[in-house]
Amino acid sequence: MNNAFRDPQSLLIVGGTSDIALATARLLVRRRARRVVLAARPSEALTRAADGLRGLGAAVETVAFEATAVGDHEKTFGEVFAEGDIDVVLVACGVLGTNALDPVKAAEIASVTYVGAMSATLACANALREQGHGTLVVLSSVAAERPRRANFVYASAKAGLDSFAQGLSDVLHGSGVQVLVVRPGFVHTKMTKGLPPAPFASTPDAVAVAIHAGLRSQAGTIWVPGVLRLVMAVLRRLPRAIFRRLPG
Amino acid sequence: MSDALLAGWGRTSPSRARVLRPGSVAELAAAVQAAGGRGVIARGLGRSYGDPAQNGGGVVVDLTRLRKFELTGERIVAEGGASLGELIRALVPRGRFLPVVPGTRHVTVGGAVAADVHGKNHPADGSFAAHVEEFDLLTADGSVRTVRPGDQAFHATTGGMGLTGVVTRAVLRPIPIPSPLLRVETRRCRDLDDVLTRLSGSTARYAVAWLDCLSERGRGIVDEATHTEGPAATAALKGPLLSVPPHIPGGLLNRHTATLFNHLWYCKAPRTSVRSMPLGAYFHPLDRIRDWNRIYGPPGFVQYQFAVPYGEGLKNVVRRIGRSGVPSFLAVLKRLGPAGEGLLSFPIEGWTLALDFPATAPGLPELLDACDQAVIDAGGRVYLAKDARLAPESLPVMYPGLARFREIRAQLDPAGVFQSDLARRLRL
Ligand SMILES: Cc1cc2nc3c(=O)[nH]c(=O)nc-3n(C[C@H](O)[C@H](O)[C@H](O)COP(=O)(O)OP(=O)(O)OC[C@H]3O[C@@H](n4cnc5c(N)ncnc54)[C@H](O)[C@@H]3O)c2cc1C
Ligand SMILES: NC(=O)c1ccc[n+]([C@@H]2O[C@H](COP(=O)([O-])OP(=O)(O)OC[C@H]3O[C@@H](n4cnc5c(N)ncnc54)[C@H](OP(=O)(O)O)[C@@H]3O)[C@@H](O)[C@H]2O)c1
């Protein structure tokens, strides 16, 4: 059960090795989170992530999760919820990929970042609705608001996910379940390793702090850093001919 | 039957449940037996602040249709959903009053038993359970048993937050009163020591202090009251005078408005005064403003009420709160007498302080966690009827009766049919 300050006691991370999600988990475990479920593809990184959170005092479970295996999602998450309430679900799976004009690669990006994330989110939304309370945190991106040449396939997938999450939020209104859409700019994580940082770059810890504040204030959408809300409002309105000339 | 989003009086953590309003004990029993996997919990008038009367994804039985009562000689026999306000309304013209009343009269008999509520007269009269002769408890198997002081089920249910079963009927002992009036003596106290001295030395049946925790020294106002003779048939209970409109933005209440409010309120009080006052005005001043909990806006508010034995504990917590910069409106300070036998009952001998905070006040979650520690260090506890944020680990430390409570609950309800958001949050 979320407490009055929306500090969750149990947390499910979809994409359990994500740097952003794990930074958030560490922060929430320092508050009230006692049960953490990491859903991810089995790997050494996953084992390490679980051990790290156990070291902070959380009871951690891992479950195998492949974003593209959408047929399994209901069962996978159904089992997680059957073990006990989940107060917050953090959907963090995604791949940035490259901007090569390769149809197969593009479909892979979309099938993890959009289709897989959407299917997992829906499976969890249904379970949360049964439970009568909880919050879905969906990691979108500022890229959802305006694609750049460097990431337009990923951006299109995030645009789909973002729009899906907003609609879901309306559908869930009054159900006791809330949706928080998170739109970070460039974040230094393994996803962006080696890439030149964009303006207003931030860190996983900064995103974690913003997510925590967003939960507490029951926000519907947050930008990280917050200034990106204004920046994107301007960029969205920029004529394409000018936008195209911007770097990246 | 309908689905509804239910919250406590603080409006902070709503959850959705199937709500049933049984019109008879048989209907209630059927609802409990058909509860399903996420269980069932009783709900009275929803005046507890946090999440004890809600059960996300499960069933909530609203008891307010089971509200009949009768006055028989020296006893009141009331159904679990009868409100204390209605009992008082019937008792007062007969020269009787309830022995224990909380700060609002909109509380059911079942809610008063489940929280084992206390009033401004705890040192003199104890808590609600001390005046309950017996009650009927509907347990998980659908059967009803009559429970009396001394029975295990009695001491697990008084203070047990609805988790042992549903109280369907209770027999209470009212007290005689000479009139519907109280003689109230009010005194302004310039600092916390002054307040404590005044309360400690009080010989009145009822005593309460309102503290301004934002002031440097913890100034306050002490009200002492005793039942008194007076002209009969004064309107002891009035309906609400004011009502707070439903849509108020959050954030209106902050440190500045709180300081101003507390200041005005302190300065308006007489230095000392003695007056006659109707019962309602003394016991339930807030009931005159309907839905006053809405002034905090949609994010809601949190009440923090703790009890600590006499000693430095109270001052430690008050100082911590004062220094924190988190806005707190008038805090209510009372003395508590020796603890009763309820395993999870709140009152222990010493002081109890209740403070209201806007839920979104920056730094509040961390401040209250620090206060929990100070309360634990002093050998105290927080009140479950007000709680919405305690850490589960703190509960067994604050309530040594918890282990015994769990054993009895397991006997009464082996399948864990009675469930609530509070129980899940605190791993009760
Ligand atoms: C303005 C205000 C002032 C207050 N002042 C005081 C005070 O001075 N002293 C004090 O002690 N408390 C005080 N309270 C708290 C209040 O008295 C308790 O929370 C009380 O339990 C509320 O009763 P209710 O009928 O509204 O119950 P609810 O809030 O609906 O439920 C509270 C608990 O009782 C259980 N319950 C309800 N009915 C039954 C039943 N029939 N059988 C079994 N369990 C049941 C519920 O499951 C839940 O756990 C105050 C509250 C307010 C809003
Ligand atoms: N970093 C940024 O600049 C940035 C900016 C805005 C938004 N975001 C979004 O934030 C979220 C978290 O990203 P991050 O920065 O923390 O990157 P990250 O550490 O790379 O996390 C991405 C996660 O997605 C998982 N994943 C990838 N393919 C998967 C698949 N087929 N099945 C299951 N899981 C799969 C990865 O798990 P494996 O370990 O199994 O690969 C990893 O846990 C993502 O949705 C990302 O799009 C990131």
TrEMBL record, chain A:
Keyword Oxidoreductase tagged: yes
SUPFAM superfamilies with a match to the protein in the record: NAD(P)-binding Rossmann-fold domains
Keyword Oxidoreductase assigned: yes
Classification via Gene3D superfamilies: NAD(P)-binding Rossmann-like Domain (3.40.50.720)
Alphabetical list of InterPro entries matching this protein: KR_dom, NAD(P)-bd_dom_sf, Sc_DH/Rdtase_CS, SDR_fam
PROSITE patterns: ADH_SHORT
Residue stretches making up the Ketoreductase domain: 9-189
Pfam families reported in the protein's UniProt record: adh_short
Gene Ontology MF annotations: oxidoreductase activity
Keywords assigned: Oxidoreductase
Protein origin, superkingdom: Bacteria
Family assignment from sequence similarity: Belongs to the short-chain dehydrogenases/reductases (SDR) family.
Name of the protein in question: Short-chain dehydrogenase
Organism: Acrocarpospora corrugata
From TrEMBL, chain B:
Record-linked Pfam families: ALO, FAD_binding_4
GO MF assignments: D-arabinono-1,4-lactone oxidase activity; FAD binding; L-gulono-1,4-lactone dehydrogenase activity
Keyword line: Oxidoreductase
Keyword tRNA processing: no
Domain FAD-binding PCMH-type per the UniProt entry, residue ranges: 12-177
InterPro entries referenced in this protein's UniProt entry, alphabetically: ALO_C (IPR007173), FAD-bd_PCMH (IPR016166), FAD-bd_PCMH-like_sf (IPR036318), FAD-bd_PCMH_sub1 (IPR016167), FAD-bd_PCMH_sub2 (IPR016169), FAD_lactone_oxidase-like (IPR010031), Oxid_FAD_bind_N (IPR006094), Vanillyl_alc_oxidase_C-sub2 (IPR016171)
Cellular component aspect of the GO annotation: membrane
UniProt protein name: Oxidoreductase
Organism in which the protein naturally occurs: Acrocarpospora corrugata
